[in-house]
């Protein structure tokens, strides 16, 4: 992506769409630290899959009553 070609997406633009903050964090964690992040539909599907896995792993087995 190139800023001069106007074919880039900012974090604010991404969060204004269907991306969640958690989903964006996962996408950034999937990229390398020294490379740019190219967000493709395939990477988005992988991030959704990881988010589902995290939800299943860290959700309590029963609702807490407080």
Structural notes for this entry:
The protein is mostly helical. It is 52% helix and 0% strand. The chain has three helices and no strands. The N and C termini lie far apart (48 Å). 5% of the residues are buried.
Write the layout of secondary structure elements.
Elements: H1 11-16, H2 21-30, H3 41-58
Helix pairs in contact: 2-3
Tag the structure with descriptive keywords.
mainly alpha, 0% strand, 3 helices, 66 residues
By secondary-structure content and strand pairing, the structural class works out as mainly alpha
Helix content: 40-55%
- On the 0-100 scale, what is the average pLDDT? 77
Write the element-wise H/E pattern from the N-terminal end onward. HHH
At a glance:
The protein is an all-alpha fold.
């Amino acid at each position: 992506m190139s800023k001069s070609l106007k074919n880039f997406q900012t974090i604010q633009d991404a969060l204004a769409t269907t991306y969640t903050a958690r989903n964006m964090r996962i996408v950034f964690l999937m990229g390398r630290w020294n490379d740019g992040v190219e967000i493709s539909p395939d990477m988005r599907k992988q991030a959704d899959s990881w988010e589902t896995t995290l939800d299943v792993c860290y959700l309590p087995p029963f609702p807490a009553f407080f």
